[in-house]
């Protein structure tokens, strides 16, 4: 499916806040001292390592919010696989704007491209299976919409965006309610008819109880591939099956082979390494 860009209305406030954080109370005192007003430069964003690109709009805005006359020309699109040395975009205009916006633009582009790259690696690891790689709410505060976009750029899909998207009954909810049945009863009495309900289970016994109640999806937490296979057999297509826990490129193929529909991965958005991208002066 084509990757739809985020509306600028969503991205601009995040980039603006990041610039304001960096500018502090006196602006870029280094650049303002070294670079004369009116000086112009041409620079390129270039990949330093192989990966998948995301966040070019963030980089563009980091420069254009400082000077609307800056010309930002992308050479690739978000979601593209690149090699070391690939030019991602050319930037021309006020040298002061380009140097002042450099770190903010690179911080966001490197972060989002790292997430897209890690996602693409997991997607490739489970190729041939029906399972989808999905992210979670384990995101950087304030960056959730961007980080979830980066997951899509890497070929993954999104789980909940927030607590109001859908119901997810987890172990602590069950502990407080006393049982899965009681937790589900309380949810059914309160949630609207359009709200999907997912329940987390840790054992096949809990899954067996859930199957007598029914839900839209079940989160099979920290189960071995063998147990996941049995869980998928027990569910028999009556609800979506989601596996989570200890997922990486080595373990993902066996998890996917168990037949689950979704594999959720928290580290994609909380600790994926960045993709190294540089901003190089060319004239």
TrEMBL record:
Protein name as annotated:
Probable nicotinate-nucleotide pyrophosphorylase [carboxylating]
Q: Which PANTHER family match?
A: NICOTINATE-NUCLEOTIDE PYROPHOSPHORYLASE [CARBOXYLATING]
The family database entries (NCBIfam families) matched by this protein are listed as: nadC
Task: Give start and end of each Quinolinate phosphoribosyl transferase C-terminal domain.
Answer: 115-280
Family annotation (InterPro entries): Aldolase_TIM, NadC, NadC/ModD, Nicotinate_pribotase-like_C, Quinolinate_PRibosylTase_N_sf, Quinolinate_PRibosylTrfase_C, Quinolinate_PRibosylTrfase_N
Looking at the UniProt record for this protein, which Gene Ontology cellular component terms does it annotate, in alphabetical order?
cytoplasm
Q: What EC number(s) is this enzyme filed under?
A: 2.4.2.19
List the SUPFAM superfamilies hit by this protein, alphabetically.
Answer: Nicotinate/Quinolinate PRTase C-terminal domain-like, Nicotinate/Quinolinate PRTase N-terminal domain-like
Q: What is the documented function of this protein?
A: Involved in the catabolism of quinolinic acid (QA).
Q: Which residues form the Quinolinate phosphoribosyl transferase N-terminal domain?
A: 28-113
First-tier enzyme category under EC = transferase
Identify its protein family: Belongs to the NadC/ModD family.
A Gene Ontology biological process term: quinolinate catabolic process
Q: In which pathway does it act?
A: Cofactor biosynthesis; NAD(+) biosynthesis; nicotinate D-ribonucleotide from quinolinate: step 1/1
Ordered alphabetically, the record's keywords are: Glycosyltransferase, Pyridine nucleotide biosynthesis, Transferase
Q: Which reaction does it catalyse?
A: nicotinate beta-D-ribonucleotide + CO2 + diphosphate = quinolinate + 5-phospho-alpha-D-ribose 1-diphosphate + 2 H(+)
Subunit annotation: Hexamer formed by 3 homodimers.
Q: What Pfam families is this protein classified in? A: QRPTase_C, QRPTase_N
Give a GO molecular function annotation for the protein.
nicotinate-nucleotide diphosphorylase (carboxylating) activity
């Amino acid at each position: 499916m084509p990757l739809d860009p985020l509306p600028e209305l969503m991205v601009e406030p995040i980039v603006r806040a990041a610039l304001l954080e960096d500018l502090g109370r006196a602006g870029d005192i280094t650049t303002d001292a070294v670079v004369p007003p009116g000086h112009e430069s041409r620079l390129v964003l270039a990949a330093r390592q192989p990966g998948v690109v995301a966040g070019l709009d963030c980089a563009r805005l980091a420069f254009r919010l400082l000077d609307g006359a800056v010309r930002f020309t992308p050479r690739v699109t978000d979601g593209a696989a690149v090699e070391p040395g690939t030019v991602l975009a050319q930037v021309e205009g006020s040298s002061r704007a380009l140097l002042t916006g450099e770190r903010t633009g690179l911080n966001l582009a490197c972060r989002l491209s790292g997430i897209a790259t890690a996602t693409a690696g997991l997607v490739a690891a489970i190729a041939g299976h029906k399972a989808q790689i999905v992210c979670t709410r384990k995101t950087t505060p304030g960056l959730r919409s961007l980080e979830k976009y980066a997951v899509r750029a890497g070929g993954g899909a999104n789980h909940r965006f927030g607590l109001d998207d859908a119901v997810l009954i987890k172990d602590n909810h069950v502990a407080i309610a006393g049982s899965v049945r009681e937790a589900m009863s309380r949810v059914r009495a309160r949630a609207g008819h359009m709200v999907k309900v997912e329940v987390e289970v840790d054992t096949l016994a809990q899954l067996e109880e859930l199957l007598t109640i029914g839900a839209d999806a079940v989160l099979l937490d920290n189960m071995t591939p063998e147990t996941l296979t049995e869980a998928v057999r027990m569910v028999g297509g009556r609800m979506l099956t989601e596996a989570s826990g200890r997922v990486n490129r080595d373990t993902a193929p066996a998890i996917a082979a168990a037949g689950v529909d979704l594999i959720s991965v928290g580290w994609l958005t909380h600790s994926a390494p960045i993709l190294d991208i540089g901003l190089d002066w060319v004239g």
